[in-house]
Write a structure and sequence with these properties.
binds pyridoxal-5'-phosphate; globular; Aspartate Aminotransferase, domain 2; 7-stranded mixed beta sheet; 4-stranded antiparallel beta sheet; 12 helices
């Protein structure tokens, strides 16, 4: 049995062939340093960077000078929070509003900023992972300098009402940062319509290479520079640019822009087929995330009476890669902070599996996944002491 199904595209994606083809020449013949403007080889590298910058800007309805390249989505998140906090230090503004379901790149940065006297309010989310706009308004203080809310959640796929949040931030004269790492390429982003001042992006989630991120900074935004050194990225983020990675990011965005509607429609059909397949074939499951306001490729269910880690092991034996609701990357098996924030109890959260699809997936792969899950869950439940206890109680 050699079938391999990669259903963990929120973790990372395969680099697209067109992207690799475009990048290749910048490892080989076009290896110039973009800061070396006195000869052609250097100028060619600079031109390639500026072309990618324009592709990103056009896709987001931004200006080219508002796009910066970083090393990752994590770095962009760090820059947004630390950059705004440090630019406001000792100016009477020391409060950030975010949510309980952000990526650790945001949550751990907020924790770090406490050392500098920065306070953070973490907004609750409802069962579907949505914030409450009234709670957001009530959390605003005279000292609030930044609202940082993710566009779409990486675990449960819930999409926040970004435009409404942007309006609230704008009305109060507060900067609005959006972590759009999971949304880029799957949700329409217009930084002007949505009143976004700062936005984090990452190439490896959309068929681009790893180690390259993007940051949108609205012109005139008060934010400190992040990496100090040479004059790269208009002096705001120093370090010789990873030209080949920037080129790859640009190409991945170009492809995303070209195929946007088809991509979203095709994935939504597959996602709904998987959701319905699981709901109709496996008893005692809970869909995590919003039923409709969710990323077109995200399916996250909790399977009562079983452990996510055991499901993952059996899926791996069947050639399927997925992800569970435990923070196993950190070496602990605590249930995910996102699932707990939506009100799941620890036991149910532990039995959660996230499938995230890509355009490589076909209908028959979805049907195979449903059949495989049906078998795995039945097998694990037959051995589950919790399930057996529940059955005894019922009898
Ligand atoms: N923000 C979100 C919502 C993410 O899902 C991720 C990665 O999973 C990141 C930030 C970090 O991005 P990167 O892997 O480029 O550091």
């Amino acid at each position: 049995m050699s079938r391999k199904l990669y259903l963990d595209n929120a973790a990372t994606t395969r680099v697209k062939k067109e992207v690799i083809d475009e990048m290749r020449q910048y490892f080989g013949e076009l290896y110039g340093n973009p800061s070396s403007q006195l000869y052609e080889l250097g100028r060619k590298s600079k031109e390639a960077i500026e072309k990618a910058r324009k592709t990103l800007a056009d896709f987001l309805n931004a200006e080219e000078k508002e796009i910066y390249f970083t090393a990752s989505g994590t770095e962009s998140d760090n820059w947004a929070l630390k950059g705004v906090a440090f630019a406001n230090l000792n100016k009477g503004k020391n409060h950030i509003i975010t949510t309980k379901i952000e990526h650790h790149a945001i949550l751990h940065t907020c924790e770090y900023l406490e050392k500098f006297g920065i306070e953070t309010t973490y907004l609750d989310v409802d069962r579907h992972g949505l914030i409450d706009l009234e709670e957001l308004k009530a959390s605003i203080r005279p000292e609030t300098m930044l609202i940082s809310i993710m566009f779409a959640n990486n675990e449960i796929g819930t999409i926040q009402p970004i435009e409404e949040i942007g309006e609230i931030a704008k009305e109060h004269g507060i900067l609005f940062h959006v972590d759009a790492v999971q949304a880029l390429g799957s949700v329409r982003i217009d930084v002007n319509k949505q009143h976004i001042d700062l936005m984090s992006m990452s190439a490896h989630k959309i068929g681009g290479p790893k180690g390259i991120g993007g940051m949108y900074i609205r012109k005139g935004t008060r934010i400190d520079n992040f990496v100090h050194g040479g004059g790269q990225e208009r002096g705001r983020r120093a370090g010789t640019e990873g030209v080949q990675n920037i080129v790859g990011f640009g190409k991945a965005v170009e492809i995303a822009a070209r195929n946007f509607d088809d991509h979203v429609e095709r994935l939504t059909v597959l996602r709904n087929r998987l959701i319905e397949g699981i709901k109709n074939n496996i008893p005692d499951v809970v869909l995590n995330g919003h039923p409709t306001q969710r990323l077109p490729n995200n399916v996250n269910f909790s399977y009562k009476y079983v452990e996510g880690e055991s499901i993952l092991l059996l899926l791996d034996m069947e050639g399927i890669s997925a992800s569970s609701g435990s923070a196993c990357t950190s070496g602990s098996l605590d249930p995910s902070h996102v699932l707990l924030a939506t009100g799941l109890d620890h036991g149910t959260a532990h039995g959660s599996i996230r499938f995230t699809l890509s355009e490589e997936i076909r209908e028959e792969d979805i049907d195979f996944t449903v059949e495989t899950m049906k078998k795995i869950i039945a097998k694990l439940r037959a051995m589950s002491p919790i399930k057996n206890d529940e059955d005894l109680k019922k009898n």
